[in-house]
Amino acid sequence: GAVVSQHPSWVICKSGTSVKIECRSLDFQATTMFWYRQFPKQSLMLMATSNEGSKATYEQGVEKDKFLINHASLTLSTLTVTSAHPEDSSFYICSARDPLDQETQYFGPGTRLLVL
Amino acid sequence: QKEVEQDPGPLSVPEGAIVSLNCTYSNSAFQYFMWYRQYSRKGPELLMYTYSSGNKEDGRFTAQVDKSSKYISLFIRDSQPSDSATYLCAMGDQGGKLIFGQGTELSVKP
Description:
The structure holds two protein chains of two kinds. Chain A is mainly beta. Chain A contains no helices and eleven strands. Chain B is mostly beta strands. In chain B, a hairpin with a 4-residue loop joins strand 7 (61-66) and strand 8 (71-76). Chains A and B meet through strand 5, strand 9 and strand 10 of A and strand 5 and strand 10 of B.
């Protein structure tokens, strides 16, 4: 199956700093990628839809100025958590839409963020 | 009311048991239904997806959808310790967004 990678797999940072997470589709081109957040024992919550070459579409309640998304190429989307706070600590997971099957998403392994 | 409801468990069964996992939903616009498996600290892995009411079988896994009742199920036959994971149902609408259930934590004991 298609492979999606994320980097880094985990990160610890101080409160107030910014953290960038990369999501790459390794063997296919993805015009659409998604960013999710998952708190412990909870479901994946969609944060935003990232479209190559255009602005991301954010879900209600997600601050676009805090969670900056850039999808500059067909294989890379980045999520930057700006001025991170401890409550931003979570598991961030990206997915990439299959270009041949709009209903299928391939998920990355996730990035665990801990803000101290 | 959440759009998708799923009992979080945990669910513990002996090896070889039949496992039944379920979700209910409220949005009639959902057109396709998926089950994902997620191991601890990993991304979700697609197990099965269906469009219509009825059953779909793949090896030890059977996905069942009842659109009239807004209810979906995943059955695992001859469960193995390696099946221990969190199982997430997900539903998609025409726009391609997925809404996930909370996930059910399953433990299969040898």
